[in-house]
């Protein structure tokens, strides 16, 4: 025979098992008397013949005979073999293992285990809930929500709000949230200040309390400048708008803001240094001095003068021993063995006494024996007859009385007795009466022919 299953019974000789009466149960292989009173709701008949309580958060109808008759309560859903509460933002209004139902977008529940749709309440102002969420979440900083929002709304441009803000009125201007050319140094202020001269702002300066300074050596022509190109090179500097700006070179100037090139000073003029700002900075350059009759206002220093700096001063005389050419910025030293008076040109450098040269560019050389040069001469000259000179002499020496020499004599030994004189010891004496000598030399006087007689010293 086959055993009757739990919940059924049979009598002796039965050909089939019968179901126990309503609200009763039996264990397997029961007779009719084994059909006991049914288990109450929330329990089920166990194989032990006793009623067992359904698992936590589960329920069963009265007379249940198996744990499978236990299903999850309202507000709970199956998770494996257990029942868990519906999460925040969901609900379940019936018994069973079905999933919990999500609240509509913008709504949530106050907690877990909600049992009906009415438990879904609108998200409070300052929170939100979208289709991927089961609970209301606080809006982050910079956003807000009034109510029943599936997303927070961003604050207007250049403003912000604290987390959990519930109105656009919670959005206040950021510090520096102003139009280009302006700034704000107070958070939440709606008052913007204009960028001052020499500064600019090219876009709203979020979080900045001031404007940007122009690059070095540039400035703005008016307040409220909105881009770096408004920074113009200062007077005395040149370059593209917005920089970089470089100073005008020596000999140039620029008198206004802007990118225009520096202007060169007129010929003969220059500036003290770089970065000059006006035409009046152009003074007579080195080598030039004021000249009212010149159309340029400055003329070159004359030869013998110099000027080594830029200014409207006159030129200075070169000191003795030095010389200069036209437009000189410094005096040069005369060549060796020569001299000059103050204010001399190169031609004024005269060879010293006893020295000479064939031109003003050649070195002064010592005069050779038989020549001389004095302080008024630039070249060596041959000594005339009757005189002689040894080397480097400023003048020729006259031969002793009674002697003479040919031109270019180089020593006293070349001084010979003249005509009418003869050698007598170390000197020359006049020919005696009745004698004569008609040649230069140390030879003796000759007797006169016939009765001729000449006075002493005649022939």
Automatic annotation (TrEMBL):
Q: Residue span of the signal peptide, if any?
A: none
Residue ranges occupied by any Tyrosine-protein kinase ephrin type A/B receptor-like domain in the UniProt entry = 79-120, 126-171, 181-231, 240-282, 370-415, 421-449
Q: Which InterPro entries match?
A: Growth_fac_rcpt_cys_sf, Tyr-kin_ephrin_A/B_rcpt-like
Pfam families per the UniProt record, alphabetical: Ephrin_rec_like
Instruction: Return the protein name.
Output: Tyrosine-protein kinase ephrin type A/B receptor-like domain-containing protein
